[in-house]
Write a structure and sequence with these properties.
This protein is an alpha+beta fold and 206 residues long. Helices cover 15% and strands 35% of the residues. The strands form 3 sheets. Strands 1, 2, 3, 5, 6, 8, 9 and 12 form an 8-stranded mixed β-sheet that branches. Strands 11-10-14-15 form a 4-stranded antiparallel β-sheet, with no helix packed on it. The longest helix has 11 residues. The protein is globular. It binds magnesium ion.
């Protein structure tokens, strides 16, 4: 199982970190050991002084495929979830400065929080609205209609390089409003569905 992540896929978030808006999807991966499921608490690793949350819509790949063509891309996603791409921002900045890979800043244990999945039919698939609450206050409010690269764009692009396999995950990028976490913080991810708001993700920071 692969955890594929997309960076800088919302223009407002690219701007808040002083990054250029990319002309192609920016792809990185986390190892399966990064997964944190079942509302388990997140322990801030001791190697970072600036660990950030990034709430994202996560796609579950429904079938195997490579070089997926645009007209078939929709068939590859039947379920979505919310996830947090935890990032050691201080380590990431060091890596970026040196032109080094990001894995230690992005792929550490517990850095890929994942909620339960819901059917993609419960949301408007081209405009999925979602929110991150930190200690009860809204800190991120995203809508996938603002994605630079849509779900379908990502499936076509990623599958040129990596064979997509059933169960692979794609973290589709985070909107503006990322920020640091501290011990004791309570994070909640809310998905706006056709039948009302779903409190889909819960994560306590320890
Ligand atoms: Mg991210």
């Amino acid at each position: 199982m692969k955890i594929i992540c997309i960076g800088r896929n919302y223009a407002d978030h690219a701007k808040e970190l002083n990054n250029a808006v990319p002309s192609k999807p920016m792809v990185f991966m986390k190892p399966p050991s990064a997964l944190l499921v079942n509302d388990k608490p997140f322990y801030i690793p001791d190697f970072t002084q600036d660990c950030h949350y990034e709430l994202e819509v996560v796609l579950k790949i429904a079938k195997n495929g490579r070089h997926v063509q645009p007209e078939f891309a929709k068939d590859y996603v039947k379920e979505i979830a919310l996830g947090i791409d935890f990032t050691a921002r201080d380590l990431q900045s060091e890596c970026k400065k040196k032109g080094h890979p990001w894995e230690i800043a992005k792929g550490f244990d517990g850095s890929a929080v994942l909620s339960n999945f819901v059917s993609i039919d419960t949301v408007n698939r081209s405009a999925v609205e979602f929110q991150m609450l930190k200690n009860g206050a809204v800190v991120q409010h995203g809508n996938t209609k603002d994605l630079i690269f849509t779900f379908e764009d990502l499936i076509c692009y990623v599958s040129k390089f990596f064979k997509l396999q059933m169960g692979d995950l794609i973290y589709t990028g985070t909107p503006a409003g990322v920020g640091p976490v501290a011990i004791g913080d309570k994070l909640e991810g809310v998905l706006f569905t056709k039948n009302g708001n779903l409190d889909l993700l819960k994560c306590e920071v320890k």
